[in-house]
# Entry
Amino acid sequence: MTSSNSRRSFLAGATTLLGAGVVSRAGAATLPEAPVGPSAATAAPLVPPNGRPYNPVVTLNGWSLPWRMKNGVKEFHLVAEPVVREVAPGMLANLWGYNGQSPGPTIEVVEGDRVRIFVTNKLPEHTSIHWHGQILPNGMDGVSGVTQPSIQPGKTFVYEFVARHAGTFMYHPHADEMVQMAMGMMGFWVTHPKDIRQHAVDRDFVFLLGAYDIEPGSYTPKVNTMLDFNLWTFNSRVFPAIDPMVVRQGDRVRIRAGNLTMTNHPIHLHGHTFEVAGTDGGWVRPSARWPEVTTDIGVGQMRAIEFVADNPGDWAFHCHKSHHTMNAMGHDVPTLIGVDHRGVAEKINKLVPGYMVMGEKGGAMGGMQMQLPENTLPMMTGTGQYGEIEMGGMFTLVKVREGLARGDYRDPGHYRHPKGTVAYEWKGELPPAPQAPGMQQLAPAQGKPLELKRGGGHEHH
Amino acid sequence: MNIDKPLRLASGAVLALAVSGCATFSADGGMGAVDQATQAKAGAATKLLRTDDDRQALAGQLRAMLAQPLSADDAVRIALLNNRGLQATYWELGIAEADLVQAGRLQNPAFGYQHKRGGGETSIERSLTFNLVSLVTAPLASRIEGRMFEGAKLRVTAEALRVAADTRRAHVEAVAAAQALDYARQVAGAADASAELAERMRRAGNWSAYDQAREQAFHAEAMADVARAAKAATAARERLTRLLGLWGEDAGYRLPERLPDLPAAPRELPEVERAALRERLDVQAATKETEHTASSFGLTRATRFINVLELGAVRERDGGEPASKGYEITLEVPLFDWGGARTRRAEAVYMQAVNRLAETAVNARSEAREAYLAYRTSYDLAKHYRDVVIPLKKQVSDETLLRYNGMLVSTFELLADAREQRVAVAAAIDALKDYWLADADLETALGGRLPASAQAHGAHHDIK
Ligand SMILES: [Cu+2]
# Structure
């Protein structure tokens, strides 16, 4: 499968546009360029070439949308269209997105900017865009049927408003939204403060939490899935394909995340404490912030967390729902822990050649190499310097290193631990492991049916 | 002395016999024709077992054939030689031929010699007595018995071919049933593994009694299926064993593990109806019957003539009157008796035969068409299972294993899939069995073996 990008223009670096846009030459006189996202790699921050200055963000495995200035108005052009997103090397997803990628490009503006956004619909059905969290005229809110007619396929609508408040926002459709959001229609919006020094940080990362249900062997998400998703993503990528967040030791770091899935995600950072500095509503007063190592991002919410990266190392950063740090897995697989397979495995092997016992000692696959269905990913994958990282999905690393250059986001590789700072195996004498008195060893519980007393509450025997 | 007349008559009889042709016992007792027919129409020889030597020779032949898994062709070969019912039928030929020969033979002349002495006179009386009746009836009786003998040959051949066809069918059924049993055992193996794992899941505290009971119920049902399949396999095999006429140690013969593969292409037979009319024994028999009936006008006349004469002659002899006299008198009687009623009867009998022949021909054509259509349909169905259903099921299994590898499904889904394959594999075995049965039926409907060239065998396709 070839990416639909290849035949079209793409971005080299983040600031230079190459090739023609998707709009016709006649339209180009009035419509701004609609650049196309080059790849699923993290693009370097987009330093503003004109307009008010700001400190750009870095979109994890994504990019920011260039604009043109027209009579003092920042003009952006979003094209809603089907895209093929690489969820991870070896797995592609037929999604809907904007400008060649899902999620769409991050839109960065400055407080007080007048913004005009052209939205062209190249989807097979109508759409609209809601600017989640923006305070704007009602007619620009993008709820099809309520504040505007929906944008029919092939049509372009213009949204225009002033970005009044600094903060962290999203854009997504408010037309057939169940399908369109399940298909990956979403993007990030950052309104930077007018005063470049206000809320300034050294590194500012953004991503959206997304969930997809793509049956192994297929490419298109099942849009009717409510909760039992099998791909948990940051910007439609899963670990180990989510880029690390690389920071210099001592940097003040901000991570902004928005949740467009159908459940909450307790996002956890190792090695540091952080403060929740912002929500969709804006910046939290310093006196109201509280220290955290995990913050729950509810459905439809934005959170900006801030911390000083004072602790060098490779620090895990992930959703704390353990199934959310897994890739495609069977949720109906019974627990095999403690079940002896001896003898049975041979019988099964006669019937199912190639059968291997898994799960009898736990979930770890112990480096087994096995063939999987097409277009899916192992449940847990990725290798660190000490072996397998048994996670997938919403997981990445915050890599804190000394002396990195300001704009250097390149992966510095594995952390080199100072001598004597890595857990090691005890080689001395091993006392017997203590056990609770009266506890039978390896005795699974056995029971009888409960008796239920009607009328008098129930009693357990 | 009354010796002269009989002698004259006897010489006349010899003359008559020389004209009609005297029937003698053939070297093969009629089996040559039957053997020729079974070789052509069933692809196997047949032989009447007359002596212990014959039986010992057959035993040796059987040992060689039974040393390896019994092919359908070998089964037919054995049945044609060893089926005792068939051997009994073969002896009918002997009976018919004996009747024929008997009919063609004159009764032995009796020579009498009387030496009387008394009253000083010695008289010597020599007499030669001869059955005049048989002399006159012999050619006519030979004709009848000849037809009877021909009819017997056809009947015996038909019976041999029936046994051959039954054997071919029974062989297909027995192999298919054994294959189905083998597969049922495999499925029970899957269920057994499933049930055992379920029990361990329960012991480890990972599964409820509900889950365990469900898996074990599958196992219990699979065991019942094995029992049913075993019963069916035994019945099918014993049917074959009976047709083969085997018992004791020989009944322990081995069958091929699986049915032959589907040929690469089905037989192309554009002229099934013509083949049926040309080759079928029932059509041939009905044709002969009609031909015989056609000549039965004359036959009836002759029969009456003979019968009357015979009665008269016997009476004459009993009375001691000269035989020639009776002969002359009674000779005229049947001619007077030859009336319209008999002609009408003969006509009716003839028309009956003609219509029977027509019916036989209509049925033969229809059966040939039906058999060919059934054959083509069963070929297509077996091919569909081989080329479409089974590969798809195999793909499902492969994909299930991949999903298991990805921990997307459990061992139980794998085993459930193995169980589910059963329906498809059983249906595929059934479809292949139906094809081979239809093939055998087609040969029967068309009156015998079809050219082997159409039997191009396909590549080996595993349906397990
Ligand atoms: Cu989560």
